[in-house]
Design goal:
By secondary structure, the protein is an alpha+beta fold. Helix content is 33%, strand content 21%. It contains nine helices and 23 strands.
Length: 399
């Protein structure tokens, strides 16, 4: 079963054909079940996080601990296919279990052990899209839109192309090194983000102690802008991670009404309150616009001009901490029908937070925070380049 097909990219020391076999040559289905509920380490298979304990992913146990006797038992090195589709895994994720102790996993998943193949090579092959056309053409139609329907024996009939064991290992090693670099890059970003919050906390704590900071009602430092979009500015959205962003560039299309003259105008440095619950921010998010030109946002958002730019910067980073946003907004919120957030633009300004009294201190802190944010932006750009490099290699190193 030698084939002439070879990947677009290959290490120079390797040549020759790759061998074609079915997945069944390298794998066997796991059918051992958790009789008598002997094992209680319930796992789930996430596209982004891999195979992890269920309560780590959901913050609670989803499985009924008293009724897991139909769950499959897997051990370190075993593979699991979760047929549920997602953006990160359009045909469902296939992951390898790296846990030290045996675990159990839903009978809705396909579990298999592998042999006579590099597990890491196979793992990265499933991270590529090279196997997607097979599942697309061999899956059943007319079933749930959010789940791939493919029979187990058909899945195991999937063609697998393999080079020599040495080449398999070298491909897997290269990709694992890139994964390690991506993980390190994420940690670098997290450290800088933690530094921002540590600076705010320390400055606030020290400032309140020596009375160079004081509790200040936001109405003293913010003024509602109240300008409507009569000049037809570009419509933007506000996100937790990206702040104020062009709606089409960020979301891929516009969600704005055809007529946007009643939308609110946002100028550079303005503070926006979204009033929309999202993730860790059940009462909405507060962001400063870093876009240099005027833009428009939904009329449901509150837009405020800060008394000076340094205060606007401090507010932006202060409200980036979900606990700060919650503690400020919770006393102000009145929940309306359908659990909507019922708060006027004026009422948003009626609570207080600690802020520096002196303008020069506010400027110093703002400049420090902005310089760290610029460093974060650079590190995120580097992260994206590593992720693109990985995707490129995944697309070129397998057949």
């Amino acid at each position: 079963n030698k084939v002439l097909n070879v990947p677009h990219l290959r290490f120079p020391e390797f040549s020759g054909e790759w061998e074609k076999n079915n997945l069944s040559k390298f794998s066997s289905k796991i059918t051992k079940k958790n009789k008598s509920n002997f094992i209680n380490n319930v796992l789930c298979n996430s596209a982004n996080l891999g195979i992890i304990p269920q309560n780590d992913y959901f913050d609670r146990d989803i499985a009924n601990a008293d009724n897991t006797d139909s769950y499959y038992i897997i051990e370190q090195g075993d593979f699991v296919y979760n047929p549920r589709k997602s953006t990160a895994a359009p045909y469902g994720p296939v992951n390898i279990y790296n846990g030290e102790k045996p675990g159990i996993i839903s009978p809705l998943y396909l579990c298999f052990s592998v042999f006579n193949i590099s597990p890491s090579f196979l793992f990265y092959r499933f991270k590529s899209s090279v196997w997607h056309p097979y599942v697309y053409s061999h899956g059943d139609t007319g079933v749930r839109y959010d789940r791939v329907s493919i029979k187990d024996d058909v899945f195991f009939d999937m063609p697998i192309y393999t080079p020599t064991q040495n080449e398999q290992e070298k491909i897997a090693t290269l990709l694992s090194l890139i994964d390690e670099r991506i993980a390190t890059q994420n940690k670098i970003i997290e450290k800088y983000e933690s530094l921002i919050q540590a600076i705010i906390y320390q400055k606030k704590t020290d400032g309140m102690r020596v009375k160079s900071w004081q509790k200040t009602e936001l109405s003293k430092v913010l003024q509602e802008r109240n300008e409507k979009n009569i000049d037809g500015y570009v419509v933007c959205s506000v996100s937790v991670s990206q702040g104020v962003v062009n709606q089409i560039e960020y979301l891929g299309r516009s969600f704005a009404a055809k007529e946007t003259t009643h939308y609110n105008v946002v100028k550079y440095g303005d503070i926006i309150y979204t009033k929309s619950p999202t993730g860790d921010f059940p009462y909405g998010i507060v962001k400063r616009s870093c876009i240099k030109k005027s833009v428009a946002v939904s009329p449901l958002y509150g837009v405020y001009k800060p008394i000076c730019d340094s205060i606007g910067v401090i507010l932006h980073f202060y409200f980036m901490q979900s606990s700060n946003a919650f503690n400020y907004l919770h006393p102000l919120i009145q929940k309306g029908a359908k659990n909507t957030i019922n708060i006027t633009n004026e009422r948003f300004l009626k609570n207080s937070i600690p802020l520096p009294k002196a303008e020069n201190e506010a400027i110093y802190i703002a400049n420090t925070l902005i310089s760290i944010q610029k460093k974060i932006d650079m590190e995120k750009k580097m992260l994206r380049s590593y992720e693109k490099e990985k995707q490129y290699l995944l697309s070129k190193m397998f057949i």
